[in-house]
Design a protein that fits this description.
Oligomer: heterodimer
Radius of gyration of chain B: 13 Å
Radius of gyration of chain A: 13 Å
Largest sheet of chain A: 7 strands, mixed
Largest interface: A-B, 20 and 19 residues
Strand content of chain A: over 45%
Order of helices and strands of chain B: EEEEEEEEEEE
Number of strands of chain B: 11
Number of strands of chain A: 11
Helix content of chain B: under 10%
Structural class of chain A: mainly beta
Amino acid sequence: SAVISQKPSRDICQRGTSLTIQCQVDSQVTMMFWYRQQPGQSLTLIATANQGSEATYESGFVIDKFPISRPNLTFSTLTVSNMSPEDSSIYLCSDRVNYNEQFFGPGTRLTVL
Amino acid sequence: GQNIDQPTEMTATEGAIVQINCTYQTSGFNGLFWYQQHAGEAPTFLSYNVLDGLEEKGRFSSFLSRSKGYSYLLLKELQMKDSASYLCAVRPNTGKLIFGQGTTLQVKP
């Protein structure tokens, strides 16, 4: 499996600010995804990070709020823009190395005050 | 629409066997995944089923019936460290994983 690291591991932010989360994979992967896990909830897919092109967003998520970059096959960023307390959540990067395996990074725990 | 159902909570005794069920209704089917998630940690991959039948991996086994839209995760010889949430996820025709709400398993001595 590809090892996934995320930075920062946690942050506390003020309302109205933005935070960029970085995801680094130690080998080239075909697909990378960003998920959100709100307190006590399961995982919800935000978007698919496409290498060299715009991300594909799921219903309820928009690029202005969650801009995503993926400049190469091993790195992606997710920005949470103009944050509000409702954005407090764990944000997880995920990769698919093979069709039958999909792994998750350690997550970024975000608290918005 | 896509729907995945799991029991919210289960309790079992150390050393016992527990079966966690998952039913799904999705637009197409391209595999079912089980993940374990300890509190405050990321999900860890447990199993993948795409064909009917039982896949065994040590103390954990996963079963799939595509015709019934049904899977279960079987945990044998339960240990206290098995206390965690277990997430069922399905990959429909979109190719993207959709997660159930998760089952919180508490193992008691």
